Amino acid sequence: MLNFTPSDAQARAIADISDWYQNHRHLQQVFRLFGYAGSGKTTITRYAIDALGLDIGHGRGWGGVQFAAFTGKAALVMTRKGTPASTIHSLIYRVSEATAEEIERAETELAQLKAGLGHMGAAERAFAQMQIAKLELRLAHIHEPRFVLNDRSLVRDCDLIVLDEVSMVGDEMAQDLLAFGKPILVLGDPGQLPPIQGEGAFTRAAPDVMLHEIHRQAGDSAILRLATMARQGLAIDFGAHDAQVWKMRRIDVAAEQLLRGGQVICGTNATRRRLNTAMKHAAGFLADDPVGAGEKIICLKNRHDLGLINGMFLSLTDVQPEPSETSAFSAMITTEDGTHIAGRQRFWRGEYADHVAFDPERARRDWQVRRGLIETSWGYAITCHKSQGSQWDNVVVFDEGFGRTHEDRNRWLYTAITRAEKGLVILS
What does the CA dihedral 304, 310, 311, 316 come to, rounded to 10 degrees? Predict the structure, then answer.
């Protein structure tokens, strides 16, 4: 049994989870345990699982509890803290990609249709043009990997699925999870950002338990106090809120100071590129592409074969251009936890080129080059969506009023603030 003394509210939550799983899970597939930052959702869940006598799955064997999160970094953080977890994608999907033969067939069919247009009558030409439009649309996206349900997923034989950071789970993924028919305990924070498109499928409905008490940090924590103000849409004053928490004006802080402030979180990719360029120059790295150790590089896509996680920071050494490919370079990798990846690895340089001159068509145009390459970017500044599931000792929130509505803006600022554990600077 875990060494944990729950409060009255937490004890009720544990009892409610146990009652649902023992008596009601066949009638109610999803149990929603919600709470704001610091309310102890993860600890309560572990205690309830222990009390129920369920085993925590370790990615092998039969039965047990399978933990998962939307982002790779959130799953990594959970695993490092003693709860083996995977991304939802890797837990329930397998990747299906178009083969070279499929692509070639589609390209040949398109070329034949275009070549024959001049010999067609009006009606036949109109039909062919419709086929051409569909083929062009298909080819524009044929390089993108498709995710299909994995009929051999560990979920098939587990006793319970526990999902953390569920605010970003959309409708399609939620339906795919439910299709396995397993009971699902979802941990959510209704104050956090929803998916980039649409809204959170699991946070749309009312919670079965909503935790309001703060337990992670002291009740007078300035970070949590400001997070609550942000969530409620209240104005946060400029100045010191304690010795490590400040709000300052953006124009008063130079790139050199940002480098010393902690992880910078911003709203848009355009701002991210601008801040990254300024900060890497301030750090003394003037080249357009990575050159070696000391630069802050972030992984943008999972590479499970190499143990690389979306959102993980990397150190690159012995960086070399690819002589036969201008869109790639190679380097040796050390991950943020000190793991050395064996062998020289190849990287797509498109994100770095976009920091020099953004090209919205670059990723689509380079799709053949990107296949098999590691995708990374400068990591001095990241967007708030990229930061979800992660936390840092010190965070700088570059606040430009991001959000289409007041609610969006409140969620964005709350999410950004709650990435900080000890120190926080809001730049507005």
Answer: 60
Structure tokens at 237: 């004053």
Contact between 241 and 222 under an 8 Å Cβ cutoff? The reply is yes
Q: Which residues contact 233 (CB under 8 A, 6 or more apart)?
A: 406, 409, 410
Contact 317, 305 (CB under 8 A): no
Strand ranges for 204-294 from DSSP E: 209-211, 239-242, 245-248, 263-266
How far is Cα 243 from Cα 246, in angstroms, rounded to an integer?
8
CA angle 302, 296, 197 (to 5 degrees): 45
- Residue 312's φ and ψ, nearest 5 degrees, are -80, 140
The tokens for 12 are 């009720």
Residues 6+ apart with CB under 8 A from 25: 31, 183
Q: How many CB atoms lie within 10 A of CB 30?
A: 20
Torsion over CA: 73, 78, 84, 90 (sign): negative
- What are 14-59's pLDDT values in tens digits? 999 999 999 999 999 999 999 998 888 988 999 999 989 998 764 4
In the predicted model, is pLDDT for residue 323 greater than 90? Answer: no
- pTM here? 0.80
Q: Give CA angle at 19 (13, 22), nearest 5°.
A: 140
Q: What angle do the packed helices 406-417 and 222-231 form, to 10 degrees?
A: 170
Contact 43, 164 (CB under 8 A): no
- Interstrand relation of 160-164 and 65-69 (parallel, antiparallel or unpaired): parallel
Q: How far apart are CA 154 and CA 86, in angstroms?
A: 11
